[in-house]
Amino acid sequence: MVEVKFRKAEKKDTEKVLFFIKELAMYEIMADQVEATPEILEKNLFGPQPRAEVIFATESDREIGFVLFFHNFSTFLGKPGIYIEDLFVLPEYRGKGVGKALIAYIAGLAVERDCGRIEWWVLNWNPARRLYDGIGAESMDEWVVYRLSGDNLHKMAKRLPEIAG
Q1: Residue 112 binned pLDDT confidence (cut-offs 50, 70, 90)
Q2: Which residues lie across from 55 on neighbouring strands?
Q3: What is the C-alpha to C-alpha distance for residues 72 and 82, in angstroms, rounded to an integer?
Q4: Residue 136 backbone zone (phi > 0: left; psi -120 to 50: alpha; other: beta)
Q5: What integer pLDDT is reported at residue 1 of this predicted model?
Q6: 132 among known catalytic residues
Q7: Which domains does the chain have, with CATH numbers?
Q8: Which residue among 27, 93, 105, 132 is the active-site one?
């Protein structure tokens, strides 16, 4: 086990956030899909309307993991939730409780903020699924994820006048 402390990312941490995003992308074999830049992250994480939050797990003032999350909303519960977009722990710290500590930290925020749940996606081959199963998280196998992005997103947005009349 590692003695983990937590700190909220600040504007000065933009490059560090991007580092963790790129490390996660390499781990997930998706490095070619990272389009984020320091400027994009600074605007969306630390600008006038922050869209997400980042918490670092640290040991001896070194960032060893991170979680990037934002609020969503459950109409069925009538409450906000927290969606974990990214959670990553440096390889040399895996299996030492850092990932579990990050989830516990987010769970504490969810309770403090009166959220009804925490959700995240995980690749089916990711060994972290054992951790998630072990803490009582439930796989939502009956749900199918859809994504509209890139050119198709722009094409759909342009169709509004034709669709809405």
Answers
A1: very high
A2: 8, 67
A3: 6
A4: left
A5: 77
A6: yes
A7: 5-140 (3.40.630.30)
A8: 132
Burial class of residue 130, CB neighbours in 10 A (0-12, 13-18, 19+): exposed
Tokens coding 55: 């918490």
pLDDT digits (tens, 9 = 90+) for 28-51: 999 999 999 999 999 999 999 999
Is residue 102 within 8 Å of 55, Cβ to Cβ?
Answer: yes
pTM: 0.93
> In 32-154, where do the E strands start and end?
53-59, 62-74, 79-89, 118-120
Q: How far apart are CA 128 and CA 20, in angstroms?
A: 17
Residue 156 CB-density burial (10 A; 0-12 exposed, 13-18 middle, 19+ buried): exposed
**Model confidence over 77-99: pLDDT tens digits?**
999 999 999 999 999 999 999 99
The terminus-to-terminus CA distance of the chain in angstroms comes to 60
Distance of alpha carbon 103 from alpha carbon 48, whole angstroms: 27
